[in-house]
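Entry 14. Structure prediction run on the chain below.
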Amino acid sequence: MSCCPPKLSPLKRMFWLLCTSVLLSSSAVAQDGPLRQRLKERLQQRQAERAPAQPSPTTITQPGDYRLSLVHHGLSRSYLVHVPQRGLVGQPVPLLVAMHGGGGNMDFQADDSRYGLISASEREGFVVAFPNGYSRFAGGKLATWNAGNCCGAARDGQVDDVGFIRQMVSQISAQLPINPRRVYATGMSNGAMMAYRLACEASDVFSAIAAVAGTDNTRVCQPGKPVSVLHIHARDDGHVLFHGGAGPAAVNKSAEADYSSVPNTVAKWTELNGCSLPPKRMLEQAGALCESYAPCQGGAQVQLCVTNTGGHSWPGGHKPRGTEPPSQALSANDVMWDFFNRQPL
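Output returned:
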């Protein structure tokens, strides 16, 4: 299927090629916007790629934003780092690794108007890193994570995203006073699934994760020690269905997976962490509730927060486009940081 017939002027033919690329790309699996907007962003990316490159600092020397890269397994991988104003003074600081959804990129996840993670970093005093998933494009757009059974080109090519993120954390820790006991991961959708894979395979690095709108779809999970897990999900998520499977909002089912359900994900981690049952209600308010499974081995916790509405989105965030606004019944950022602050040191 194509958007336009191919016998057109050169300019319109370029638009047709871009349209076909987006429709057929196995990487475009979880964007939360219409095709027209995504085509606009792709055209803007091509214009940016033709512009002269701006110099970017390679060493973190002061608070602010940094665009960095490294080479892992022969691939050049990029990431952003935000250091808050009080991030280089006093005691070692926490590090949060925040991963975008499938079909997104690091700039999308770092957009404070959508996710608010930069503001949270300044408010709470943690360093936040935004790694870019695997992309076939030079600009890093339409990227995915190899989270096990999902997603797209990263999964199909068996890209070593765990190794890349390990190396990224090591590179950041070599330049900043990061508290090794307070390294956390979060993500949206495919990024949340990647957070689960990090919990399974990098428990020596990450002590806790917060997964938003993405379940555990790992193929093997044998963490070396308990890892605390916070899962946040909307009951009406039309992409990663609450009770399992890829919903009607899924863009390209062949690039995705028959997703694990939220209940099965929570049950898996309460068993892995040896948590006490039944759960304790932590929060109950209009449109949202949270339940905690604790105590668990090693002082870990498992917590589930559910919103009634919001679809496939980041609670408390904002969608400048799309049909289903995020739930405002709770803030994913506030719940997440409260959860991280309750973890043993």
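The longest helix spans residues 35-50.
Filed with the rest of this week's runs.
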